[in-house]
Amino acid sequence: MRTATPRGLHRFAVVAACCTLGLVFAGGLVTSTGSGLAVPDWPLSYGTLNPPMVGGIRYEHSHRLIAGSVALLTTALMLWAWRREPRRWVRALALVAWVTVLVQALLGGLTVLLLLPTAVSVTHGGVAQVFFTLMCLLAVVTSPRWLAARAAEPSHADVRAIGIVAVACVYVQTLLGAWMRHTGAGLAIPDFPLSYGRVAPPFTSAGLDMVNAVRTRTYVLHYLDSIGPVAIHFAHRAWAAVVLAAIVTLLVATVRRHGQSRLFVGLSAMAVGLVCAQALLGGLTIWTRKSVIPTTAHVALGSVILATAVVHAVIYRRCTTLEVDRAAATAPVSRGAAHA
Amino acid sequence: MTVYAEENGVLKFHGSRGVTTVAAVGLVSASLLLGCAKEDDARADPPSPGPKAPSITQAATATATAGTASIAGKVSFVGEAPVASALDLNADPVCASTHDSPVMGRDVIVGADGGLKNVFVYVQSGASGDYDAPDAEVVLDQKGCVYEPHAVALQVGQTLNLLNSDSTTHNVHALPEENKPFNTSMPIPGMVIPKTFDETEIFKVKCDVHPWMSSYVGVFDNPYFAITGADGSFKLSGLPAGTYTVAARHEMYGEQLLEVTVGDGEAGEAAFSWGG
Ligand SMILES: [Cu+2]
To answer: How many angstroms away from the CA of A219 is the closest CA of chain B?
Structure first.
């Protein structure tokens, strides 16, 4: 029976999304602790479901167990939505989430079996962000507030556009972060907010000597044999400024167009706050020399920022009316609200 | 200034007899417990005991051509050496229980006389000819959850025996770029896995179960290589007369090159230094 979205489906989706955030954190822990290959086999761990939980095995195997549980939750969510959810696109969204978690599991296995090739590990990190966002979307679109919402305000093209640009900027940043992590470039620049005492670090091989002198003498870090990691690391820092600009622009546009809407302004203000907190966590990651907790929290908060930006864009679309919609509403055949 | 120097000055390999016994025990238990001894991964016959415990320089001279020249010297660290900190082995109770005193980090080990330990010194160019791999096998032991030794050197085609002397699980994760990377689990105490390498390079080996465990393996296409001892000294012997580019590579500080010319019977010198 697909008469109405069950209230329980929403609650279940919220729980699943929270578990997924936990999974992102657990996955982040694997890389932060350098445990990615502590278990050389996959899908079993040392040929069993119960390997000795010591050292890096604890992180890697826990990640696998939590991932298995989230995959089960996602399967249940998908089946439940498939049976009871009246909106076809929501059922499709649940199916996409389910397929994503399966692809993600395969990528996880592949990255272990292929010894963490950068491309596969970065993709595994990138798909994790997409999957968490999908789970958040499922929680949002099954909520009673979403179902009861009305498109009260007119939609503004600038807010819509900036919202999408912001999502793209944030996602690029999570990929840059994953690339930096999986190339071991997290401390390629050991100071923050400056880079080797300058606004921008050197990018030439001539600058490499200075970089290595500072690394080995001041920071007691191993030398770099190319400037590449510095460039990757700095790209992540520079792009952070782009993300901040995009998110602040989104807030400004939202306030200008919808100053009265607590929902829109609240969401975009929240995004700005999260990005600022994220910059601080990034700094903490450097200052503590990639201490495990701030480093992993930085990864998890990245997911939350991406989900927030996407949810903002989606809710904006839901709660505002496009010109075409208004035109359609006055046309003889109305779109109706049942499938909104 | 805190200086950490290891108790035994010279890098020595464990006697091959001990290795043989451990390897045999490891093999038997491996086949009994797992039945997973792939020909690729675990050797079918235990390593034969060499005439004596080989050291790197002995292994090197064994196959050297009839050269009579040598290049010797010291790798120094000038100035205040970084303070070594104790490794936290508590992530695995077995590791912590095997040591009575703290185990110090081994990235930079500077001796009392300013010698820098664990530097690969090798002939990077100038050596021509085909050098057969020596029969002597080199051991990289995982003992007390640290690698012994911290740096090993061997020739292309020479056998490196990975050994687990601990009663806990290690994975050996090698990160070469020229050779084939691998990640092998060594869950059984006494297990031995032989490896050979085809290409010249120095690469890192790490254990992801115990993130503090790291070691460096140097593979060279000629027999003229050494790893500095606690006093920073090295000697490349058996060289034919000629001009050589001698490289010194340290995991923290990178690589330095020197050109050295030696005639027959001559003892050439090379000095490297970092820090300052
Ligand atoms: Cu280990």
So the answer is: 10
